[in-house]
Each structure stands twice: as C-alpha cells, then as structure tokens.
Design a protein that fits this description.
binds 6-O-phosphoryl inosine monophosphate; binds guanosine-5'-diphosphate; eleven-stranded mixed sheet; 20 strands; 420 residues; five-stranded mixed sheet; binds magnesium ion; alpha/beta; Adenylosuccinate Synthetase, Chain A, domain 3; single chain
C-alpha cells in the first residue's frame, strides 16, 4: 500500500501551500486537488521563475508525476485549458499524466455570472473571488449541476444547456446574449474531454499498488463551509478529512496530515479577523510580505498570528505538524504579537475558538508581545542558526498552538526553509 498524505491551509488561505506541495512532491507519485476550484492561487518559485496555479495541483512541475482533480473539485474548463496551454514551454501535461474526474462539477459562464451578480448586488457581500464557485456547488447540491462526464459528451452537454434554457428564462437571455463566452466554453470543454477518466478508481488502484498520493488542499481551515466563519467562507469543505470524501477512500488510510500557516495571518475578502492590524503596521506587513491575492490581486488584510485559530485548525484537521512560512518578513520589526486567547464582552476570556460566528464577531484578542530580532535571518539550514529572539518566538508559537513546527519558510524559493 502506498502512503496517503494530505496538506491543508490552517488559516484563511494563502499560507504558502503551493510552495510546500512542490517541495514535498519528490517522493509522491500522484498529486491531487480535492476541493475548491480556480478561487485558489498557489504560487511556487523555481529557478527564479514564478508559477501560479489555480486548478492544476502544484506537483505539475515535476515531470513524470501524475496530477489529478477529484470529485469534490469544481472545474472551469476555460481556466484549465489556459493553464495547461500556458505550461507547454515548461512541462507537458498529457492525458496520461492529468486525470480529471468524471464526477467533478463544471463551472460554466452562467455560474461566474451568478457569483458576480450576487456579489455586486449584495448589501453585505462575502468578497468572493467571483469565479462561480458558490453557484456551482449550490447547483451540485440541488442536484441539477453539470458534471464533467456530461460536459465531456457533446450531445449530453447540449441536452443540459437546452433543458436549462427551457427551464430558466434568465439563463436563456444570458446564453443568447453572450455567444463568445459560450463558444469559448464549447472549445475548452472539447479540449478537456481527452483528460477525463474515473480518477478516483485509478487513484485507489495506484495506492493499492504502492503509489504514494498527496492531496493538496485549497483555501484554509477558517474558510471551511462547516467550521469556518460562516457566511464569510468558501463553498467547500477545506479540512483534511474532505480528501477522503473526494477520493472515495477509507479515511483511516490517511498516513500524514500536514498543515501550512504563516507566522502572521492574512485574510482576503470580508468576515471576522480578530487579530487584524488596522494601523500603519498592517500596510508594512502587506508590502514586505507582498500580500496581494494570487488570484484577484486584491490587497490581503494583515494581522498577527492567532494561536487560538491554529489550535482549532490542529484539532479539526488532526495535524501531524505545521509548516510555518514567512519568518523573513518579521525581521526588523520592533515587537511581534501573538493572540493566545480571546476576550468576549459577556463570556469573558475564551481559550478555545468559538464555533459561533456571533460570538467570534465580538471577540478581542489577548496578546503576548515579543521582542523581534533586527538582523536578517539565514535562508537555509537549521533553527540553531537563527537569532535567539527568533528561536524563542518559534518555541512560543509551538507551545501556544500545541502543534509541532515541521519547518519554517524564509523566502519564496522552494529551497528557502529552516528545519528544527
Ligand atoms: P497558497 O495559496 O497557500 O499556495 O499561497 P499563495 O501562493 O497564495 O501565497 C503565498 C505567497 O507567499 C506566495 O507569493 C509565495 O511565493 C510566498 N511565500 C511562501 N513562503 C514564503 C516565505 O517563507 N517567505 C516569503 N517571503 N514568501 C513566501
Ligand atoms: P488559496 O487556495 C484566500 C476567499 C475569498 C472570499 C471567500 C469566498 O489560494 O489559499 P469564493 O470565491 O471561494 O466563493 O470566496 O473565500 N478565498 C480565498 N482566500 N485564499 C484562497 O485560496 C481563497 N479562495 C477563496 O476571498 O473571502
Ligand atoms: Mg493563494
């Protein structure tokens, strides 16, 4: 039996998952995306070149590895086609190495339109990526969505579109008024058809035959549809357990669950963010950390490390440990803060993350403050090479988070990290 590993975000997304997937992919045979869609933006820098993937798993740069999109993913074929074509000069993405599940659901131009319209007309928008994610999952759950299997067969695709035109005059108007969008959809649906297969069956078989599988999470724990800061969440489950659901495997077969976080926190879009920094320092972190969305280019809200949220992420995912990125960004600050508890106006001090969004909304963080280090930190090697203040800071993060730190990121390159 091969090993099954899952790697997920522990915060509000953009923790640097892409970099670690790429880094640990060397002893993996199959890398899968198991939820979300092109709302994700996963960055990796290799040999001085930056790559951002929205749908393809970050293992794609390792020629010879299989990459897969399994049942819980929502796929915009136009984006996927573009991503495959853009990679041509670097690596080839053939149907032998990219497996797209027949069971995944399809984001059509209609779903993108619905997402955009609802965000633009809402009194309190979610701040979505407007990529059609929510409407596609909603239709899946209403059981009238378009599955990849349907998209791949021209006559079935046509039938789905005709039925929808008959049933929904607004859809018909949108369809008739946007021929270029639907033409692009048709072209990409035909292109993607070659890659479609029973991906889950093939992954299960691969595992049984000894192949190692890595499941790459998108978004982050605090954006989970069930356990996150609802309604300011994404529309899929972002937790490690979702990998078993999406691949259709025995959850007890998961060997390793790895978390990714940053030594501070960011959030894009609306919703509660207790440790958000509202003064000039937030802007300093944003500029130094280049905290602008990889998908929408929106400025990310910046805040301090939230150990209560990290403890929660540890608990709901069952982490074996966490990779913490961006230690380099904190060098030279005067002081660094870490939230160790929340204070609620009526409930008092809370040591655990509250499951109620209503409670969370009113919480203020209780901080511990640390003196920062003034020199630059080494990019590679072990923690022992760090200034004492940085080492103490990491020990405290580990203690407050109740979670083992596996490595610490020190720069954008896949080799920029320190180990304990
Ligand atoms: P993902 O969505 O979790 O894969 O993360 P993103 O790619 O959206 O955002 C993470 C950003 O941080 C990317 O631009 C990475 O290149 C960058 N990054 C990752 N680790 C480090 C690190 O340790 N230091 C610095 N300075 N940048 C990092
Ligand atoms: P990666 O995988 C950060 C956020 C959006 C919005 C909310 C809902 O790169 O970490 P959606 O379009 O999913 O309906 O938007 O979720 N969001 C992300 N934030 N990183 C992501 O992905 C995100 N994907 C969605 O900003 O607040
Ligand atoms: Mg991202």
């Amino acid at each position: 039996m091969g090993k099954l590993s899952v790697i997920i975000g522990t915060q509000w997304g953009d923790e640097g998952k892409g970099k670690w997937v790429d880094k640990i992919a060397h002893d993996i045979d199959i890398v899968c995306r198991f939820q979300g869609g092109n709302n994700a933006g996963h960055t990796v820098h290799v040999g001085g070149k930056k790559h951002v993937f929205h749908l393809l798993p970050n293992g794609v740069l390792h020629e010879g590895k299989i990459i897969a999109l399994t049942s819980g993913v929502v796929i915009d074929p136009r984006v996927l086609m573009r991503e495959i074509k853009n990679l041509r000069e670097h690596v080839s993405v053939t149907p032998e190495r990219l497996w797209i599940s027949t069971l995944a659901h399809v984001i059509t131009p209609w779903h993108v339109y619905l997402d955009t319209k609802s965000e633009e007309s809402a009194k309190n928008p979610i701040g979505t990526t407007k990529r059609g994610i929510g409407p596609t999952y909603a239709e899946r759950d209403l059981r009238n969505g378009m599955r990849v299997e349907t998209m791949a067969r021209p006559e079935k695709r046509k039938e789905w579109l005709s039925k929808r035109k008959e049933a929904d005059p607004e859809f018909k108007t949108f369809y008739d008024q946007n021929p270029a969008l639907w033409k692009e959809f048709e072209v990409s649906a035909a292109f993607i058809a070659d890659y479609i297969c029973p991906a889950e069956e093939k992954i299960r078989k691969g595992l049984k035959e000894g192949q190692n599988v890595l499941c790459e999470g998108a978004q982050g724990t605090m954006l989970d549809i069930n356990h996150g800061t609802y309604p300011f969440v994404t529309s899929s489950s972002t937790l490690a357990s979702q990998a078993a659901v999406s691949l259709g495997i025995d959850p007890r077969k998961i060997d390793r669950i790895l978390g990714v976080g940053k030594v501070y926190a960011t959030r894009v879009g609306e919703g509660p963010f207790p440790t958000e920094i509202h003064d000039q320092l937030g802007q300093v972190l944003r500029e130094r950390g280049n905290e602008y969305g990889a998908t929408t280019k929106r400025p990310r809200r910046c805040g301090w490390f939230d150990a209560i949220a990290m403890r929660f992420a540890n608990e709901v995912n069952g982490l074996d440990g966490v990779y913490l990125n961006k230690l380099d960004i904190l060098s030279g600050l005067e002081t660094i803060k870490v939230a160790v508890a929340y204070k609620h106006p009526t409930l008092g001090v809370l040591n655990e993350y509250p499951s109620s969004s209503e409670v969370l909304k009113e919480c203020k963080p209780v901080y511990e403050t640390f003196k920062a280090w003034q020199q630059d930190i080494p990019r590679q090697g072990s923690f022992s090479k760090l200034p004492g203040a940085a080492r103490d800071f990491l020990l405290k993060l580990e203690e407050f988070s109740r979670c083992r730190i596996l490595s610490v990121g020190t720069g954008v390159d896949r080799e920029d990290f320190l180990t304990p």
